[in-house]
Amino acid sequence: MELLRLATAGSVDDGKSTLIGRLLFDTKSLREDQLAAVERTSHARGDEYVNLALHLDGLKAEREQGITIDVAYRSFATAKRRFIIADTPGHWQYTRNMVTGASTADLALILVDARKGVLEQTRRHAFIASLLRVPHLVLCVNKMDLVDYDAGVFERIREEFRQFSMKLDMSDLSFIPISALGGDNLVTRSTKMPWYQGATLLHHLENVHIASDRDLIHLRFPVQGVIRPASAKKFHDYRACTGQLLGGVMRPGDEVRVLPSGFTTRIKALEFAGRPVAEAFPPMSVSVLLEEELDVSRGDMLCRPGNPPTVGQDIDAMVCWLSDQTVLNTGARLAIKHTTRVARALVKKLHYRLDVNTLHRDDQSPGLKLNEVGRVTLRTTAPLFFDAYRRNRGTGGFILIDENSNATVGAGMIHGPAVER
Amino acid sequence: MFHRLFSRVASGVFWVGAGLRKAAPAVLPFAPVSYALSHLQVLEAESIFIIREVAAELDRPVLLFSGGKDSAVMLHLAVKAFWPAPLPFPLLHVDTGHNFPEVLQYRDERVAELGARLIVASVQDAIDAGRVTEEKGPRASRNRLQTQPLLEAIEQHGFNAVLGGARRDEEKARAKERVYSFRDEFGQWDPKNQRPELWSLYNGRHRRGEHLRVFPLSNWTELDVWQYIEREGVALPSLYSSHRREVFLRDGMLMAASPFLPTLPGETVTTQAVRFRTVGDMTCTACVASTASTVEQVLAELLASRVTERGASRADDRFSDTAMEDRKREGYF
């Protein structure tokens, strides 16, 4: 069974929680005790129906204030696929949560209220999904029941969004008219919208092709650690480097180059927990045994000799700032974590701040505040082995850490090596 | 076993490492689309990555080991992550003193088999020394009392990463917790001030006295755990399969009769065929009526079950809607 990770965005008003509650309920992923709890709370609040949205509010403060604070991860499964939903609140204050949820998502699901159409919030969510390179985007036009299931309303919203999305970098875009409350076009086809010929939401989630979203061409194997059980007699000379593949395919006998040393050798064997592995590909975690005893350690990277990532210390990237305590400005010094490598980074220049609602570039910005996105040039203390984020999310993404508070304060998407300008 | 799993995966898929695979794929760069992994393989690869990150970046990790199914899977994954090297960290059991004997036996067998180092943090010792006070009454439980000995053990041994088997599907507060869950010097979880967690880039930085709880099984469900136990042949305490036991009904749950849990007026003890879905303190872990004696039968029952595992078997979460969140804020698992 294949695993699909999706990120949802939208506010409570869009019916997002109802939609997720409904998906869980209709796929029988909500159990009786959970449903009973929802019924009790619905009743206590005076809701006229079993408010499935209530299942999703986890924390005390959320229940008290009727808001969603944080990213929640939920699982459900059908006969075809296993799903993990990163459920993120839609309010602008929570851009950082959506960035977090979108970073690992195969698919982003954005909700639009049919009565309101494409809002600033919709555009922001779509922009974040494209910034984080979520490969598939689904725009659900919800509350179709409140616009008499009118095809014209759906068409207008679709056209408006399509116009906007041309400005974004988006590969796969789908539109589905739904009513989360009534369950129309979620799991079963709606009888009220015969004009809609496309898939139901669940059918789409079960069938969207995600296997080719990985990079199976460019070998990228960041070394996590080295296993050397010298004490055990039987394994005295055993030496393997461990890691999780971020790109490409490895087989025993393949020639590999080790970065940063640049030495080339061959793969003697691939293993996982003592079992030989004939072929390794993303996202497998494996152990690699090399023909020659080279000096390989954590933070190094294996690649193919003719196909290495960029090796460099000057990096051009988009950064989303995640901290409400500090500001990102030119001259800031931070720790950077990229693959299994850690270094320090100096912000050489903040080129501009990008307005996530209008996509307008403000090159006079004094610094990036919480939830703001901007283009920066970084200089790192050690070389990183990277690709453009649009080519590989694993070797193109990094986080910035405040060395004083230890907080994760920035998320970065690499454009490429910095060029003087 | 592998064959059966294989048949569940879509055709054209092959299983690397189990000896089952199709002919070598075409020459790159046109990679075939058959490079597929099952959800269990993806979850396993993710968990192994997390466990290895902890060992690489944090110098004093420890693995919580209660003898329950989730910690059994955690231990299995940890062994796989570092094979053939020995486990690079000790195991920690927070012992309430109200354990099922089968679980203690299982714990000791696993520890001996692996040659692992086991540290026991005892709730009884903490009570005897007056550091914690036992709850009173017939519904008293030592569940909440585990927090103090846990934090003491963390401090005493200087652990800065505590690996646990908690899953996000277990409980609604857990659904919002990070894989690397930062704890302050009092062991407290602050749900409103969690570090954003992007891609697979985990931030384990902390000051002296602070630590991280790390949950590599965050994205697994109860069903995933059982499917994995079946696939890997993970050994479990005998409590998890059907056996005859003296039980009584309390608050709609079947509790095991034991000296730690006196019956109330009107509660009658009967002998029934039962098994446990979760294993914890005897005073707050209930069992379910079951005849499932193999993992396969447990899986079949699980698929038909209409109640969650915590709903079916955890008395401790019934105190209030936010019982878990409240305990976690105090430093609980």
Summarize the structure.
Chain A is α+β, with helices and mostly antiparallel strands and 421 residues long. Chain A is 19% helix and 34% strand. Chain A is globular.
Produce the secondary structure layout:
The complex is a heterodimer of chains A (421) and B (333).
Chain A: E1 2-10, H1 16-26, H2 32-45, H3 60-65, E2 72-77, E3 81-89, H4 95-103, E4 107-113, H5 120-131, E5 136-142, H6 151-165, E6 172-177, H7 201-207, E7 221-222, E8 225-227, E9 240-244, E10 255-259, E11 264-272, E12 275-276, E13 285-290, E14 301-303, E15 310-321, E16 333-338, E17 341-354, E18 361-362, E19 373-386, H8 393-396, E20 397-401, E21 408-417
Parallel strand pairs in A: 1-3, 1-4, 4-5, 5-6
Antiparallel strand pairs in A: 2-3, 7-14, 8-9, 9-13, 10-11, 10-14, 11-12, 11-13, 15-19, 15-21, 16-17, 16-20, 17-18, 17-19, 20-21
Chain B: H1 2-8, H2 39-57, E1 61-64, H3 69-82, E2 91-95, H4 101-114, E3 118-122, H5 123-128, H6 147-157, E4 161-163, E5 180-183, E6 211-214, H7 222-232, E7 243-250, E8 253-256, E9 270-276, E10 286-289, H8 295-304, H9 309-313, H10 323-330
Parallel strand pairs in B: 1-2, 1-4, 2-3, 4-6
Antiparallel strand pairs in B: 5-6, 7-8, 7-9, 8-10, 9-10
Number of helices of chain B: 10
Mean pLDDT of chain A: 91
Q: What separation lies between the terminal Cα atoms of chain B?
A: 33 Å
Helix-strand makeup class of chain B: alpha/beta
Strand-residue proportion of chain A: 25-35%
The percentage helix of chain A is 10-25%
- Average pLDDT metric of chain B: 85
Number of strands of chain B: 10
GO molecular function, one term (chain A): GTPase activity
GO biological process, one term (chain A): sulfur compound metabolic process
Protein name (chain A): sulfate adenylyltransferase
Organism (chain A): Corallococcus terminator
